[in-house]
């Protein structure tokens, strides 16, 4: 079927025919416009990568050394054939972008992943008016509503302190890119103590510092004696949970930061002592508000609870359909 | 309520046994006796008569959520727990963190929540109930909203066992655990008086009070490892209702292991017990018994299920009590005497009673393990589940203490069934599909024959959950029908005719043995195969 759509889902990824480029492709392509550096959106093997300048540092860590990367400033126009594109902050992680695509007076926006909460580590989400909005739907059920970030940060800090009083190490699991740095930046409003970080987190923290993000001081969690960690907070990726790497901490309490922690079954099943509801994705009210503010007449949904969101939007008079993508695998 | 909510939170969010016990001790130490009594009542899993059904809460949720009904259903299906879904959808915006300890909170005490609110609900009309409950939803912070909904809909499932509660109380009162066990068994009301009596170790004044049951563990390893045969009492493992006859102060009470009084269900046993001397407690099994042999458990169930016991049913399904043990004699606690001595006493008591309705569960004569093993093979034709082995020198313990009592069951029946329906589990599985219904072929259609909840690994559960979500055919509330593709080997202990089931049969204790990924749905068993098992069993019995 021939489609007039500016962006279509193909086996390699979301594709803009008129401009001959892909957005966050999951297979190697010639021209890849990247919304952000998470593994399900940035994959190796493409010839040319186009992304927002604040995200270049973290993207380079995750790409082969010789990869071709072209950085665009937020809002800077770039032309692919007769198509004009520009990147705009998505508020998801450092350097995350929405892709605005304009062709023949028609505007499409691809959101990538986004959130509406304030995040000290990245530029806030910019509302873009468009005809068609391609949105994520990771948490598109009304049960997912986020508490305000300072409350969650205070919760984490209190948990750390109460573990410290009992002589335990606090090991907090969070995605190594984005969430970990956001926690370090949020905690900086409450303390100036140093935090130990897992190797997978450390290099990304450095990239954030180089981009000018203020965070708590960090040490690598590689010191051999458990004594050094007494009462400390340690940040690690979820993959480190239950691994031999954990042995160095002796008696510890574990926590996990994720939007999924909103649900009791998830909190209990994961076996962590605590779950903190902190997400870099939009919650249900955030998704609805954003879709409304774009004034888009048509909405396409890429990943998450797409069916529920589609039906809800349709009932609200918005033309909504689901796109088949391979995003969301990292969650 | 806030203090109890804090306790709940700690229990719910830690995996450490020590931390759980410490948290309970802390709570009880600071709690008012009335609140503490209610907390014990909830924590050990006692439930009140339901004052409002889940379907009403469900309806009100849809009305109150301000969302389309299907979206509420979809959310409920994803969360899997009604109390939690209400709390997530209806509590004020923005929500407090779900396990935040610092949020503003209801200052009403736990006791008052019951006495001034929940216990008053049954006397109110529907509109008034709705007004009150919806008012709580709107005003309570997340955690308390969740807790109150849980109390309204049934039990809490907070991840503490009765044993843990007992340990915490024993530590708090500095009493042996058996004393606390003793106080918590049987009928009691959550009052400050109850709490006080338990604290002073004076709880057992009630003349109907039973003893905690001693439970057997499954025999693992070779039978020879138990030592000489002569050191052990061997009995049939009867498949009935474990019970205790308490005969004190001229009164007779029959207790089930589920700690319910079932005296009025079994008048023939109670009548026979009236001839027992006062100050005696017997442990045994209530069985349906006719024409000199035990009837299948399903028949006993019919007997319990009847609201009214007619002469007809009393005649069709007569009951008996097979006594295992004597726990009290002449108003004295005999539990610490060796089994040898207790059995001799039991034999003497029952010989002089000379009743058919209460007699001894005989010791089996076979004098070698080999001979017993042969006898065990005939268990099914005897209508029993296998053998029980009890050390002659052992005291009567509490709960499931290993070493002195073993159950040596026969291998279960097995069949291959197809997964037809799935519903979310509870507690830590509340947003996973873990409650399954399986079917077998009856001509061209699959008829449901068994429900099973256990037997898969966590990994298998996750894989299956994902598959269920993406291969759903229809949704009925939070139950989904799925494409009939996956075959499972299921084990069960017994089979009986059942006009109440579509398949016409009922299986006893079905559970999953194996996910047969090597089999296709067409290779599953047929209803005919199961009916053949039933007929074979009936032939053996005749």
In short:
Chain A is of the alpha/beta class and 331 residues long. In chain A, 22% of the residues lie in helices and 26% in strands.
Topology:
The complex is a heterodimer of chains A (331) and B (542).
Chain A: E1 7-10, E2 13-16, E3 21-23, E4 31-33, E5 48-52, H1 56-62, E6 68-72, E7 78-80, E8 83-89, E9 97-103, E10 106-110, E11 132-137, H2 149-165, E12 169-173, H3 179-187, E13 195-197, H4 199-210, E14 218-220, E15 233-236, E16 252-257, H5 264-270, E17 274-276, H6 284-294, E18 298-304, H7 306-315, E19 319-322
Parallel strand pairs in A: 3-4, 4-5, 5-6, 10-11, 11-18, 12-15, 12-16, 13-14, 13-15, 16-17, 18-19
Antiparallel strand pairs in A: 1-2, 2-3, 7-8, 8-9, 9-10
Chain B: H1 2-13, H2 17-30, H3 33-43, H4 54-65, H5 69-79, H6 82-90, H7 110-117, H8 126-139, H9 142-153, H10 162-173, H11 177-184, H12 192-199, E1 217-218, E2 232-236, E3 241-248, E4 251-256, H13 267-273, E5 280-290, E6 293-294, H14 297-305, H15 311-316, E7 319-329, E8 332-333, H16 339-353, E9 358-360, H17 369-377, H18 379-382, E10 386-391, E11 405-409, E12 413-424, E13 433-442, E14 445-452, H19 458-470, E15 472-476, E16 479-482, E17 487-492, E18 494-497, E19 505-508, E20 511-515, H20 527-541
Parallel strand pairs in B: 1-11, 7-9
Antiparallel strand pairs in B: 2-10, 3-4, 3-5, 5-6, 5-7, 7-8, 10-11, 12-13, 12-16, 12-17, 13-14, 15-16, 17-20, 18-19
Helix pairs in contact in B: 1-2, 2-10, 3-12, 4-6, 5-6, 6-9, 10-11
């Amino acid at each position: 079927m021939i489609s007039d759509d500016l962006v279509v889902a193909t086996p390699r990824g979301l594709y803009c025919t008129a401009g001959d480029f892909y957005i966050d492709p999951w297979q190697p392509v010639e021209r890849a416009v990247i919304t952000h550096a998470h593994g399900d959106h940035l994959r190796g093997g493409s010839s040319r990568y186009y992304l927002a300048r604040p995200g270049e540092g973290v993207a380079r860590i995750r790409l082969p050394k010789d990869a071709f990367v072209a950085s665009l400033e937020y809002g800077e126009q770039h032309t692919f054939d007769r198509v004009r594109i520009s990147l705009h902050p998505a508020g998801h992680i450092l350097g995350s972008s929405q892709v605005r695509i304009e062709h023949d007076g028609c505007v499409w926006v691809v959101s990538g992943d986004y959130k509406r909460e304030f995040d000290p580590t990245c530029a806030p989400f910019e509302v873009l008016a468009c005809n068609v909005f391609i949105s994520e739907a990771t948490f598109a059920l009304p049960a997912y509503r986020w508490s305000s970030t300072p409350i969650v940060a205070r919760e984490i800090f209190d948990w750390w302190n109460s573990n410290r009083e009992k002589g335990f190490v606090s090991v907090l699991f969070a995605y190594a890119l984005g969430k970990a740095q956001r926690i370090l930046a949020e905690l900086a409003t409450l303390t100036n103590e140093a935090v130990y970080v897992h190797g997978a987190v450390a290099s990304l923290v450095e990239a954030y510092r180089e981009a000018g993000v203020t965070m708590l001081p960090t040490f690598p969690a590689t010191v051999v004696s458990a004594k050094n960690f007494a009462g400390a907070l340690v940040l690690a990726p979820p993959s480190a949970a239950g691994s031999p790497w954990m042995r160095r901490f002796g008696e510890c309490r574990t926590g996990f930061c994720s939007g999924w922690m909103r649900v009791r079954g998830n909190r209990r099943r994961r076996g962590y002592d605590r779950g903190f509801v902190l997400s870099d994705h939009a919650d249900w009210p955030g998704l609805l508000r954003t879709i409304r503010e774009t004034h888009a007449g048509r909405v396409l949904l890429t990943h998450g609870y797409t069916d529920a969101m589609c039906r809800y939007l349709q009932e609200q008079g918005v033309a909504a359909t689901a796109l088949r993508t391979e995003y969301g695998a990292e969650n | 309520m806030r203090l109890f909510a804090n306790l709940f939170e700690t229990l719910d969010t830690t995996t450490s046994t020590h931390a759980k016990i410490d948290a309970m001790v802390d709570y009880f130490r600071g709690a008012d006796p009335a609140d503490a009594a209610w907390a014990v009542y909830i924590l050990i899993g006692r439930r009140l008569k339901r004052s409002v059904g889940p379907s009403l809460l469900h309806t009100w949720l849809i009305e109150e959520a301000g969302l389309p009904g299907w979206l509420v259903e979809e959310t409920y299906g994803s969360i899997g727990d009604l109390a939690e879904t209400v709390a997530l959808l209806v509590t004020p915006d923005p929500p407090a963190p779900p396990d935040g300890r610092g949020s503003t909170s209801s200052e009403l005490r736990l006791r008052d929540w019951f006495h001034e609110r929940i216990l008053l609900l049954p006397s109110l009309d529907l509109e008034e109930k709705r007004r009150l409950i919806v008012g709580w939803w709107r005003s309570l912070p997340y955690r308390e909203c969740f807790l109150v909904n849980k109390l309204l809909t049934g039990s809490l499932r907070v991840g503490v066992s009765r044993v843990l509660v007992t340990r915490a109380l024993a530590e708090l009162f500095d009493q042996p655990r058996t004393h606390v066990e003793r106080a918590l068994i049987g009928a009691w009301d959550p009052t400050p008086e109850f709490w006080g009596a338990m604290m002073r170790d004076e709880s057992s004044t009630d003349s109907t009070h039973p003893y905690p049951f001693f439970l057997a563990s499954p025999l693992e390893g070779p039978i020879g490892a138990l030592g000489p045969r002569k050191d052990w009492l061997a009995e049939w493992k009867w498949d009935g209702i474990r019970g205790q006859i308490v005969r004190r102060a001229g009164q007779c009470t029959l207790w089930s292991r589920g700690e319910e009084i079932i005296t009025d269900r079994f008048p023939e046993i109670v009548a026979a017990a009236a001839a027992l001397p006062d100050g005696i407690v017997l442990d045994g099994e209530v069985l349906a018994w006719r024409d000199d042999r035990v009837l299948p458990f399903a028949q006993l169930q019919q007997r319990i299920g009847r609201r009214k016991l007619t002469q007809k049913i009393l005649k069709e399904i007569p009951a008996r009590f097979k006594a295992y043990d004597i726990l009290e004699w002449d108003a004295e606690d005999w539990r610490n005497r060796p089994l040898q001595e207790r059995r001799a006493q039991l034999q003497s008591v029952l010989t002089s009673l000379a009743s058919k309705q209460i007699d001894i569960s005989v010791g089996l004569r076979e004098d070698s393990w080999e001979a017993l093993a042969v006898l065990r093979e005939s268990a099914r034709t005897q209508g029993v589940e296998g053998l029980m082995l009890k050390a002659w020198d052992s005291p009567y313990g509490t709960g499931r203490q290993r070493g002195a009592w073993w159950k040596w069951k026969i291998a279960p029946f097995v069949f291959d069934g197809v997964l037809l329906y799935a519903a979310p589990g509870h507690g830590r599985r509340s947003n996973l599909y873990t409650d399954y219904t399986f079917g077998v072929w009856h001509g061209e259609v699959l008829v449901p024959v068994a429900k099973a909840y256990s037997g898969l690994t966590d990994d298998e559960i996750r894989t299956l959950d994902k598959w269920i979500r993406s291969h759903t055919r229809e949704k009925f509330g939070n139950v989904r029908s799925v494409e009939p593709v996956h075959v499972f080997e299921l084990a069960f202990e017994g089979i009986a005719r059942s006009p109440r089931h579509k398949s016409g049969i009922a299986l006893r204790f079905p559970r999953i043995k194996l996910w047969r990924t090597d089999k296709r749905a067409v290779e599953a068993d047929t209803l005919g195969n199961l009916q053949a098992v039933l007929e074979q069993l009936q032939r053996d019995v005749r």
